[in-house]
Design goal:
The C terminus is likely disordered. This protein has 16 helices and 23 strands. With 763 residues, it is an alpha+beta fold. Among the domains are: 231 residues, Beta-Lactamase, CATH 3.30.450.20; 103 residues, PAS domain (Beta-Lactamase, 2-Layer Sandwich); 147 residues, Histidine kinase-like ATPase, C-terminal domain (Heat Shock Protein 90, 2-Layer Sandwich). A hairpin with a 6-residue loop joins strand 4 and strand 5. The two termini are 76 Å apart.
């Protein structure tokens, strides 16, 4: 039993909700606003610092660029190598900006070198080196102006560095500037929020950081969203993850370099003031809950004193005492509730008096019921008459009707006596029903009886065998319904003899067996005929090909040996003889293909006609690249059928479309599927020569052609082959066309070979 919450507890919870929800709402809104303002302030401050650092870096690069231009002009006036070496050494030692200075001649070879004091190696190591492929040298020689290289690791110091190059007479002066100054700038820039200033190259590598080990390792930050946004030229503030920790960073791009300045701070550090406010808010919320609970407990006792008194009065009324205990003075609504409770008690007292009067009326009703019992007895008499009519109906029924209770017969109508071969009912009644059930049917009968007794629902009609008293077996149809016999569950069964019908079915099965045997005999004859046809086809192929080869071969020999002495008409006649022989050979091949299509054993599987269509299109375009033909192959055309035969059919249709568009400058062939009369049809259409629809009935007959051989070559077997393949798939094929406007051939595929073809309207 579920315990329902008391009104006292509900009131306490309601007071807590009313007190705490406003405090929570105000606190959460204030926290959200404070968090947003703080993030905006930190982002703006960091963005300002990033711009300041960018200007400082830009300024720090301006001095070395000016200095390298100055050196170039000085060296341009001084042509002596010794003087140039002195000049380079003095300049590199006086400024301390560059790690190395190289003077290159016009071919890019090093002719003078000056190295800083802490540089590795000596100047002699670099003399004669070829810098002609150095991008900065090529750029300066091409433009004649100052240029700067990409960031690279210096071989002199091992630190990130850039090169500056300026023209120096016919040569170029190149200075290597170490970028350790960028890390010094990062270290001296102090964000207000204990953040970090990072300088990143245009390839995402760290080139300036307070922790110089990150610069040495060339740490790659290119995968961060803030770096990608900055390299795209989008200055702004972003939140991102680094090593599982959230950071807030601002990014700007240093003009002229493509480098980035990032000022970042851990998000937890930036939001520290908000976290302090959140702790104060939690303390305030807890204090509010405690205070509200104390106030609710104090007020609950004041409110529920009169309610307790009402509950006591209700218990008295339940015991028959209708004198309501006066309620202590309380709130106006409680007083009104007490008044209503007293009115209810008075009404209950009045209703009790009315019930006593009602009992007297019930006594009078009892007398009326006795009269109704007399009428019920009369209806029982009518029921007996109805049962008599039912008994007569059962006894005169042509079907056997029996009732069995606890596994024994307790009733059988005259038709049942005739069915079982009994003279009197005594021969059946009291006997077990299994005595009359054939052993082959006993399991089924037991299951049906169990279902009738357990589920008390009728069982459907079924066939079984019963044994008559004389031992003969008869076939019957039986249906059973639940019944009640003398207060006990029983079953009423209706049986109809079907022996004659079963004998007729047996004769039909025998006839079917004979028919199947005849079909097998006919099938064997057909297989033998097919073998003879195959042998005949081979003979035709062999016996006809030989003379044709002789005609063609001797014709060619005659043309080659006697062509000079033959007149032009003779050569023309000889060429016609050879052409007719070749045409006869092609005709034999087409006939054999048509015969083979009819004889091959079909196998059914899912065939992708779209893929076959694309393969055929590619084969034609590769074989005749000089033709301009566009193919449109619809996606997703599949069918159930023999893949080899369906490829042959589709190949014949595409061949026809290719052939009859040969005279079009811009030919178009389409393979697709459509719905015609609720049936899916596959089609191949073209914009070629077309045909006259008056002769469409000749189109699919062997050797029937609607165009002259001089215009379009062929034997007239292709569409006949398509018709034979489609018919073997239980489908139908037809064509539509117009002279000069192209043709479309449609076909459908049925369910099985030899089955009925799908009904497609002629069009």
């Amino acid at each position: 039993m579920n315990r329902r919450i008391s009104f006292k507890t509900a009131l306490l919870v309601a007071l807590l909700v009313v007190a705490v929800v406003p405090v929570l709402t105000v606190g959460l809104v204030a926290r959200s606003v404070q968090r947003g303002d703080l993030l905006h302030h930190v982002g703006a401050s960091n963005l300002t610092l990033a711009r300041s650092v960018a200007r400082e870096v830009e300024s720090s690069l301006r001095e070395p660029s000016n200095f390298i231009e100055h050196i170039g002009k000085v060296l341009e006036d001084d042509k002596d190598l010794a003087s140039q070496s002195v000049e380079l050494a003095e300049e590199i030692s006086s400024t301390g900006l560059f790690e190395s200075l190289f003077l290159l001649d016009r071919t890019g070879r090093v002719v003078n070198v000056a190295l800083a004091r802490n540089a590795k190696g000596s100047a002699g190591d670099y003399l004669g080196m070829d810098f002609s492929r150095l991008p900065i040298f090529l750029e300066t020689r091409t433009t004649g102006e100052l240029s700067r290289s990409k960031v690279f690791l210096s071989s002199v110091s091992g630190d990130p560095a850039v090169m500056f190059a300026a023209p120096a007479g016919e040569g170029v002066v190149v200075g290597t500037l170490g970028l350790r100054v960028l890390s010094d700038i990062s270290a001296h820039a102090n964000p207000d929020d204990k953040g970090t200033v990072i300088i990143v190259s245009r390839y995402g590598k760290v080139i300036g950081h307070p922790d110089y080990s990150l610069v040495r390792r060339q740490t790659d930050l290119g995968g961060l969203d803030i770096v990608r946004e900055g390299l795209a030229g989008k200055a702004g503030t972003h939140t991102y993850m680094v090593n599982g920790e959230s950071h807030l960073g601002s990014v700007v791009q240093i003009p002229g370099t493509g480098w980035l300045v990032i000022v970042e701070v851990p998000l937890a550090t930036a939001l520290a003031p908000v976290n302090e406010i959140e702790i104060i808010f939690r303390i305030a919320t807890l204090s509010t809950i405690v205070l509200a609970s104390l106030l609710a407990l104090a007020g609950r006792s004041v409110i529920f004193r009169p309610v307790t008194a009402l509950m006591a009065s209700a218990r008295q009324i339940a015991h028959g005492n209708y004198d309501v205990v006066p309620l202590p003075r309380s709130f106006r609504e409680i007083d009104e509730l007490g008044g209503g409770f007293r009115s209810m008690a008075d009404a209950v007292k009045t209703r009790e008096s009315e019930l006593k009067e009602r009992n007297e009326e019930l006594a009078m009703t009892e007398e009326e019921l006795r009269q109704q019992l007399d009428e019920y007895q009369s209806s029982q008499d009518r029921l007996v008459e109805s049962e008599e009519r039912y008994r007569q109906l059962v006894e005169s029924a042509p079907d056997a009707i029996v009732i069995h209770c606890e596994g024994r017969y307790v009733f059988a109508n005259p038709a049942a006596l005739r069915l079982y071969g009994a003279d009197t009912a005594a021969q059946l009644l009291g006997r077990e029903i299994t005595d009359f059930v054939h052993p082959d049917s006993r399991q089924v009968v037991a299951e049906r009886i169990k279902l009738l007794y357990q589920e008390h629902s009728p069982v459907p009609l079924c066939e079984q065998q019963v044994i008559r008293l004389d031992g003969t077996v008869v076939d019957v149809e039986v249906v059973g319904i639940p019944y009640t016999h003398q207060g006990k569950p029983a079953v009423q069964a209706v049986l109809r003899e079907i022996t004659e019908r079963k004998q007729a079915e047996l004769r039909i099965r025998q006839l079917n067996a004979e028919l199947e045997e005849r079909v097998r005999e006919r099938t064997a004859l057909l297989e033998a005929a097919n073998r003879e046809l195959e042998s005949f086809s081979y003979s035709v192929s062999h016996d006809l090909r030989a003379p044709l080869r002789h005609i063609n071969g001797f014709g060619l020999a005659l043309m080659e040996e006697c062509g000079d002495v033959l007149p032009d008409d003779g050569k023309m006649y000889l060429e016609r003889i050879r052409s007719a022989a070749r045409r006869m050979g092609q005709l034999i091949d087409d006939l054999l293909d048509l015969s083979r299509v009819s004889r091959e054993i079909m196998r059914r599987e899912r065939v992708n006609l779209s893929r076959i269509g694309r393969e055929l299109a590619r084969e034609h375009q590769e074989s005749w690249p000089e033709r301009r033909v566009s193919f449109e192959i619809e996606d997703g055309i599949t069918a159930e059928g023999d893949p080899t035969l369906l490829r042959v059919a589709l190949a014949n249709l595409v061949d026809n479309a290719w052939k009859y568009t040969a005279k079009n400058e811009e030919a178009h062939i389409r393979v697709g599927a459509t719905d015609i009369g609720g049936t899916r049809a596959i089609f191949v259409s073209d914009n070629g020569a077309g045909f006259d629809m008056r002769y469409v009935d000749k189109l699919f007959r062997p050797f029937q052609r609607l165009h002259r051989a001089e215009d379009f070559e062929g034997t007239g077997i292709g569409l006949a082959t398509v018709l034979r393949i489609v018919q073997r798939h239980g489908g139908r094929v037809w064509a539509e066309g117009e002279v000069g406007k192209g043709a479309t051939v449609y076909f459908t595929l049925g369910q099985s070979e030899g089955g009925s073809m799908e009904q497609i309207p002629k069009g």
